[in-house]
Write a structure and sequence with these properties.
By secondary structure, the protein is mostly helical. The chain has two domains: 12-74, Orthogonal Bundle (Arc Repressor Mutant, subunit A); 80-247, Up-down Bundle (Four Helix Bundle (Hemerythrin (Met), subunit A)). 73% of the residues lie in helices and 2% in strands. The protein has ten helices and two strands, in the order H-H-H-E-E-H-H-H-H-H-H-H. The chain has helices at 12-27, 37-44, 48-60, 80-92, 96-118, 121-142, 148-166, 170-196, 201-216, 220-242; strands at 64-65, 73-74. Strands 1-2 form a two-stranded antiparallel sheet. Strand 1 and strand 2 form a beta hairpin. It is elongated and about 65 Å long. The protein starts with 11 loop residues before the first helix and ends in a 6-residue tail after the last helix.
């Protein structure tokens, strides 16, 4: 039987949640069901109420799917919880967009460098498809078509996800999957700043095309330099969007 708190004064539900997390990550595969709430409570020596709280914590961490009337199911890992956290930071303080730029600079340069070295034809095709949709959406935006900007930023995020996937690094892929929504939010700010700077989305499409060309040709150094230029441009756009606020 667990005590109400451990020596660090953590609630017993947190202790159980940590133990259950270790079990889920170490012993269970996505799609598998957990034992019943009653069985789990007996296994960990706690009440069903405490066990229910622990299971909800794992659901909040993105490890379990829970629903009324059925046992909890192990989720396929994704970056949704990480993405929600980043989005909440940006909404509470837009200056976090610059923190995101710093993270992107490290991750994206590494991503395209590895993609240039490892990318398969399928990975290149996925990035080409996203770039084509960016090109089409940019043309639609010039014509004033409704929803074109949303489609452009969606395709832009998918371009970066495709390159992360092409890198062959599962951690990078996970991070970019989680960053998809925050990235799109940063793209809207970048678009405003880009317009203030007198630049168009066509310029951005050209930058993305140069990155993809380097990756396709196996030019890791060129891909890194092109991505660095894109990130520098995004930072200038966001600073323009927020004006003197961004300098504070």
């Amino acid at each position: 039987m667990l005590h109400p708190t451990d020596p660090d004064h953590r609630p017993v539900s947190v202790i159980v949640a940590d133990k259950l997390t270790d079990h889920v990550l170490g012993q269970l595969a996505p799609g598998m069901s957990l034992p019943s709430e009653a069985e789990l409570a007996e296994r960990y020596g706690v009440s069903r109420v405490t066990m229910r709280e622990a299971v909800k914590m794992l659901a909040g961490r993105g490890l379990l799917d829970v629903g009324r009337g059925r046992r909890a199911i192990v989720r396929q890992p994704d970056g949704s919880v990480f993405g929600d956290f980043l989005s909440s930071l940006i909404k509470s303080d837009p200056k976090c967009l610059f923190d995101l730029i710093e993270v992107r600079r490290s991750l994206e340069i590494q991503s395209v460098t590895m993609a240039a070295q490892r990318a398969t034809r399928a990975g290149i095709t996925a990035a080409e498809s996203a770039l084509e949709r960016m090109t089409v959406a940019a043309a639609e935006l010039r014509q004033g078509e409704a929803g074109a900007e949303v489609r452009f930023h969606q395709a832009d995020a998918e371009f970066h996800e495709a390159l992360a996937l092409a890198s062959g690094n599962r951690v990078l892929s996970y991070l970019f999957e989680g960053m998809a929504l925050p990235l799109r939010e940063s793209f809207y700010a970048s678009r405003r700043g880009r317009a203030l700077r007198g630049l168009s989305l066509d310029d951005m499409v050209t930058l993305h095309a140069s990155i993809l060309a380097c990756v396709s040709n196996g030019d890791a150094k060129g891909a890194a330099e092109a991505m660095s230029k894109l990130i520098d441009d995004a930072e200038r756009d966001i600073r323009a969007a927020y004006g003197t606020f961004a300098q504070a």
